[in-house]
What we know:
Layout: H1 2-6, H2 12-31, H3 45-57, H4 62-81, H5 108-122, H6 127-142, H7 146-150, E1 157-158, E2 163-167, E3 173-177, H8 180-197, H9 218-229, H10 241-253, H11 258-265, H12 270-273, H13 275-291
Antiparallel strand pairs: 1-2, 2-3
Helix pairs in contact: 2-4, 3-4, 5-6, 6-8, 6-10, 10-11, 10-13
Amino acid sequence: MRHLRAERGLSAHTVTAYDSDLRALVEFLENSASPASGDVRQLTLDTLRDWLWRESQRGLSNKSLARRTSSVRGFTAWLTRTGECDADCGLRLKSPKPGSSLPRVLTLTTIADVLGELESLAADDDPVAIRNLAIVELLYASGIRVSELSGLDIGDVNLDDHLLRVTGKGSKERIVPFGIPAATAMRRYLSDARPKLIVDAPHEPAVFVGARGARVNVRTVYQLVASLLAELPGDGPIGPHTLRHTAATHVLDGGADLRIVQEMLGHSSLATTQVYTHVSKERLKESYERAHPRA
């Protein structure tokens, strides 16, 4: 884990995922009484394949299995480089295809309803409600990841120019714009609500804080968004990433260039961003089939 953080510069969220995957492997090795549980040099390709098969039988999705495969391959490669093992037993471990399911995208009407509900809750000047409105406005306006939102410090927000300085995956910085409604919600939060929340932690640099003044964590934001989206129509995830998907798709639908959206989202590859063009095409097809008399 120290190698992943210090040498590869992976985000805290990614390191946590690696840690979870490798702990699952260790638990499997211990429960199966494998010699590798006490001596990593006893780890074999067959053992790793058996582990992944057992994980698939537990109901893990192909996407989760692909991530676990990536984690263990990175681990065995590191063991080989550091001399702990003579050969890389994970080198030929194949990853299942994650699949091509499209991300969930909310409609403009649905987003307006969600934000309208938050505005109503914030009308009585409750500082947490005002914070929640600012969080959701900013997530939808900017398309940033929930970990990036949690990591924002006061100096990262430029309210005059409507810009955020975001630290994304691999500690890469980028500048992301946000719109007028988000700026309005942010001004209200920073001037009226945040000072009330940081009474016990006046030197906290984080933009978004909890009821006790400490930096808001990812779980809190996830629970907030999930509670808002859980009862909405449609299938698919209900976490903050849905707002990221929605923002990207709406910007593309509005005519933005794909490379602009790539920069906005912080994707290292344009291929990752292209999934949102498929979402837009899918929505176009659905609208056509509903509207055209000879569809």
